[in-house]
């Protein structure tokens, strides 16, 4: 498979041509100039220094998601440097001669990343889980990779309404096991303790008074499929003990039976609780925790991905009016949706849109009059952006040594980025929101790009 990357060499010990030839032999065509494309980038260096780190940071901040930092020799890279580069945003850091064929190693990684990105952009992902914000995409990329290339156990953490169940279903959909079977959901918050054994393990006929027939439980139903234990943080301690063996060994006995059965399932659990805190408080068994938390994925709350609000709102609008002509929100409604608080996260946004749709009539855009009275901001609620969190951010900037010019520039750049993201790249609309001309916005963006290079 022919793959492509950008390539920057600041090494004197290996010639750029020799590296490009080695990469080409492994099927990677390396472009040595910056074409502004979102290709993986290889930074080849002789010496770790602050400049290298800043370069990695800039690339990663500007949206380049795959950066290789490759040292020409072991002396160029200490362990501490490796971690510093990873924290700055590098996806991979290694020494060129760490293996017999380093170019092939790079090719393997690029190939995997390309496969993950292809899945990420596929209709099955894009039409179920809406969101393009960097924090969301980063999380989703991890999910997609785990779902498709492994059958590992995954614990999904996140506030209520952040999409945990949807993500669990996506994991099942993308699971590449041959002969994959069902997605089985068990809500641990609603299990009646007396019937819990039967719910999980099934029962034999006559196992208890109402057991007139034998019955399969969740472990059996999920055989060759996925078992999703929702709200696992609500599971009472005695039940946690009962589940240990079945989860560890994938074997269980039905209630009232003596035969051991085995079930081959992928386990996905979700909770909005801080499970690790629960372990410390003795509310959640630590041995169970370590069995379900092979991989932990944290879903961001909606307030941390505000640029996804409008795309989500438009997605719900289409879902709620499948037959109708496409509609959009007018400027004030867009502003309202973006700035409103959503303690119930995406579910709350869905409900707001559902209420707006209930009220809307006519073919024109959705306007503020469509927002139900109870959802409208009370007087004085808008314009509260100069609040404590704003002060806190400025305080942090000052205490980390940032000067007024730098703070001003960062604030402007952030406002521009948010407006452009919120308006999905429509520069005219972003300029109108920012109160500048299109041309002024374009110039600002160009100068921000230049200063980040
Ligand atoms: N990224 C998303 N794209 C589209 N719809 C979403 C997204 N995230 C959540 N939703 C929708 O929001 C609602 C809540 O999602 P879901 O039930 O998966 O959340 P949850 O985290 O499991 O909630 P809870 O903890 O309360 O069970 C659903 O209607 C779901 O379809």
List the helices and strands and how they pair.
Layout: E1 3-10, H1 16-25, E2 28-31, E3 41-45, H2 50-61, E4 67-71, H3 79-88, E5 92-95, H4 102-120, H5 123-126, H6 134-149, E6 154-157, H7 164-174, E7 183-187, H8 196-201, E8 202-203, E9 215-216, H9 218-221, E10 226-230, H10 237-249, E11 251-253, E12 260-262, E13 266-271, H11 275-280, H12 286-292, E14 295-298, H13 309-320, H14 331-339, H15 345-359, H16 388-399, H17 404-422, H18 427-434, H19 438-452
Parallel strand pairs: 1-2, 1-3, 3-4, 4-5, 6-13, 6-14, 7-10, 10-13
Antiparallel strand pairs: 8-9, 11-12
List keywords for this structure.
Rossmann fold, binds adenosine-5'-triphosphate, Helicase, Ruva Protein, domain 3, globular, ATP-binding, 19 helices, 453 residues
Account of the 3D structure:
With 453 residues, the chain is of the alpha/beta class. It has 4 domains: 117 residues, Rossmann fold, CATH 3.40.50; 165 residues, P-loop containing nucleotide triphosphate hydrolases (Rossmann fold, 3-Layer(aba) Sandwich), CATH 3.40.50.300; 72 residues, Orthogonal Bundle (Helicase, Ruva Protein, domain 3), CATH 1.10.8; 65 residues, Arc Repressor Mutant, subunit A. The chain is 46% helix and 13% strand. It has 19 helices and 14 strands. The strands form 4 sheets. It has a 5-stranded parallel β-sheet with strand order 2-1-3-4-5, with helices on both faces. Helix 1 crosses helix 4 and helix 4 crosses helix 6. The model has no long low-confidence stretch (mean pLDDT 87). One of its GO terms (molecular function) is ATP binding. Pfam families: AAA_lid_14 (PF25601), Sigma54_activat (PF00158). It comes from Nitrosospira briensis.
């Amino acid at each position: 498979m022919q793959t492509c990357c950008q390539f920057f060499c600041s090494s004197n010990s290996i010639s750029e041509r020799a590296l490009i030839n080695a990469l080409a032999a492994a099927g990677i065509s390396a472009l040595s100039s910056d074409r502004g494309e979102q290709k993986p980038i290889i930074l080849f260096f002789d010496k770790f220094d602050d400049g290298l780190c800043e370069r990695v940071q800039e690339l990663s901040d500007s949206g380049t998601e795959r950066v290789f930092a490759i040292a020409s020799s072991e002396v160029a890279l200490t362990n501490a440097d490796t971690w510093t580069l990873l924290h700055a945003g590098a996806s991979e850091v290694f020494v060129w001669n760490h293996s017999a064929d380093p170019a092939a190693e790079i090719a393997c990684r690029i190939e995997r990343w390309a496969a993950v990105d292809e899945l990420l952009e596929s209709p099955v992902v894009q039409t179920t889980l809406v969101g393009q914000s960097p924090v969301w995409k980063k999380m989703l990329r991890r999910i997609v990779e785990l779902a498709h290339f492994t059958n590992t156990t995954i614990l999904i953490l996140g506030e209520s309404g952040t999409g945990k169940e949807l993500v669990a279903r996506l994991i099942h959909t993308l699971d590449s096991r041959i002969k994959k079977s069902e997605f089985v959901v068990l809500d641990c918050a609603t299990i009646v303790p007396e019937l819990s054994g039967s719910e999980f393990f099934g029962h034999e006929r006559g196992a208890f008074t109402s057991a007139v027939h034998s019955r399969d439980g969740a472990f059996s139903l999920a055989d060759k499929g996925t078992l999703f234990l929702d709200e696992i943080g609500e599971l009472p301690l005695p039940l946690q003990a009962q589940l240990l063996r079945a989860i560890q060994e994938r074997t269980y006995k039905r209630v009232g039976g003596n035969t051991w059965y085995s079930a081959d399932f992928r386990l996905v659990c979700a909770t909005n609780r801080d499970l690790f805190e629960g372990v410390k408080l003795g509310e959640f068994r630590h041995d169970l925790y370590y069995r379900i938390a092979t991989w932990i994925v944290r879903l961001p709350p909606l307030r941390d991905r505000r640029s996804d609000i409008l795309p989500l709102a438009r997605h719900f609008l289409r879902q709620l009016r499948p037959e109708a002509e496409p509609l959009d929100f007018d400027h004030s409604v867009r502003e309202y949706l973006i700035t409103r608080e959503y303690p119930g996260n995406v579910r709350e946004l869905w409900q707001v849109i559902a209420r707006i749709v209930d009220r809307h009539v006519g073919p024109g855009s959705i306007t503020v009059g469509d927002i139900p009275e109870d959802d409208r901001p009370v007087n004085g609620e808008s314009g509260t952006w100069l609040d404590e969190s704003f002060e806190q951010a400025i305080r942090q900037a000052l205490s980390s040594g940032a000067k007024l010019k730098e703070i001003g520039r960062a604030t402007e750049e952030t406002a521009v980025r948010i407006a452009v993201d919120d308006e999905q790249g429509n520069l005219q609309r972003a300029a109108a929101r920012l109160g500048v001309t299109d041309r002024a916005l374009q110039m600002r963006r160009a100068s921000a790009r230049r200063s980040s290079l």
